[in-house]
Design brief:
By secondary structure, the chain is α/β, with parallel strands linked by helices. The protein folds into two domains: 2-169, Rossmann fold, CATH 3.40.50; 182-273, Pantoate--beta-alanine Ligase, Chain: A,domain 2 (2-Layer Sandwich). 38% of the residues lie in helices and 20% in strands. Helix 6 packs across helix 7 (147-159).
């Protein structure tokens, strides 16, 4: 396994590869990341994993400094999976000067996560575009757990005619349903037991809709109230149309329910397609 910090050396190493599958990460790898990488290996002989904690997608009050950085452990896991290439640049490599060129994003980026984390998707889109330009992958694998992020990246690829195929991979969950996330380790034992109730709230909405309920606002409100009663601070519970990520209308099909909520100081997100 080759580990690169330098862009020029990375490009030289990848120059002759016929097909590159790319998995972008912020490190602190867990089973969800490893599932993406295993799927990438099934699709290509050359798999590149990036590890970079992107300052641009953190608000000033968020956990950029506290975000777990476990490069040695991550590289050990990647070596066990026989990953070809790891790109783990320092911040000054990707941002040698202030990043003054930023993408203007569609209005969907200002909803849901964008409403509560303004600027988040601009930071995500900027770093993903930079990594695409550096690595020039043919395939990129992203998890459905970050559903809106997946949507934004797909739209960026489509509207900017980028020569990369985005492959969406299913969310990996703990046995109790909690979506795996690097931030789960912030939870104490009591909070960890409670954390699965965000998934359960979304699952109840999914069951109600499958059973024929079209009272979407009521379903959202009831789920929000239930979580608040359990001690959560809810940012949103929303039923959206998958194709546009706009609020679902009564006759819409192919829906997704998305939620974001806080347990004390830990923010969790999840979603379920319907």
């Amino acid at each position: 396994m080759k580990i690169f910090n330098d862009i020029t050396a990375l490009r030289k190493s990848l120059n002759r590869e016929q097909q590159i599958a790319f998995v972008p990460t912020m490190g602190n790898l867990h089973a969800g990341h490893l599932a993406l990488i295993r799927q990438a290996k099934q699709l290509s002989d050359c798999v590149v994993v990036s590890i970079f904690v992107n300052r641009l997608q953190f608000l000033p009050q968020e956990d950029f400094n506290q975000y777990p950085r476990t490069l040695d452990d991550d590289c050990r896991l990647l070596a066990e999976l026989n990953v070809n290439t790891v790109f783990a640049p320092d911040e000054e490599i990707l941002f040698p000067t202030p990043q003054e060129f930023l993408l203007a994003l569609p209005s969907v980026a200002n909803t849901l996560e964008g409403e509560f984390r303004p600027g988040f998707f601009q930071g995500v889109a900027t770093i993903v575009l930079k990594l695409f330009n550096i690595i020039q992958p043919h395939l990129t694998l992203l998890g459905k757990k970050d559903y809106q992020q997946l949507y934004v990246v797909r739209e960026m690829v489509r509207q900017l005619n980028l020569p990369v195929e985005i492959i969406a991979c299913e969310t990996v969950r703990a046995p109790d349903g909690l979506a795996l996330s690097s931030r789960n380790q912030y939870l104490n034992k009591v909070q960890r037991l409670e954390a699965c109730h965000l998934y359960q709230a979304l699952l109840q909405i999914k069951k109600e809709i499958i059973s024929g309920c079209k009272e979407f606002l009521t379903l959202q409100e009831n789920a929000t109230k239930d979580l608040i009663q359990r001690g959560w601070k809810v940012d949103y519970i929303r039923i959206q149309k998958r194709s546009l990520l706009t609020p679902a209308q009564i006759n819409d099909e192919d829906l997704v329910v998305l939620g974001a909520a806080w347990l004390d100081k830990t923010r969790l997100i999840d979603n379920l397609e319907i």
